[in-house]
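Subject: complex prediction, re-run

Hi both,

The earlier run crashed halfway through, so I resubmitted it with identical inputs.
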Amino acid sequence: MMKLSKKEIQEKIANLSDWTYNENAIHTKIEFENFKEAFSFMTRVAFEAEAQAHHPEWTNVYNQVEVSLATHDAGGVTQKDFQLAKTIDQLLGEE
Amino acid sequence: MMKLSKKEIQEKIANLSDWTYNENAIHTKIEFENFKEAFSFMTRVAFEAEAQAHHPEWTNVYNQVEVSLATHDAGGVTQKDFQLAKTIDQLLGEE
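This time it finished cleanly. Structure:
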């Protein structure tokens, strides 16, 4: 899996909902109504991440979830990250 | 809920498994076999946290889970944090 160039990342990120690129990863921050909603969302993402064999770095504090995606083996952002980001956006769209 | 003194925290933390106190919170870091095990554990904690109406700040990267507990309203660590920490230790003991 090849690391994407900055130009490629900027093009692809434009198709996502609310993601930013910095420090060699793509990031989003999502706010939910409460902890239960936040963790339920994480659970749905967890199953998809496992299925894609690609896992997020994520932090949860009460109703907030911060997600960072990177491909450590490639030393940056790859198509796998955009695939999982797209899945996350789709799950959010279903909320 | 009253903020505990440093002395009280140090006494209580001695009864826990592998927690440290710094920056006005208590912290632990747990390593699991893989993502599935890590997230399954988080799910069990999530239900207990919700039941205790007290929620962790936590980060997961693949098989690792870092947990920080503090009581924001009290500006430090309270009995509620030790209650949840003890629950987490008990769940780990059942693994």
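The two ends of chain A are 31 Å apart (CA to CA).

- K.
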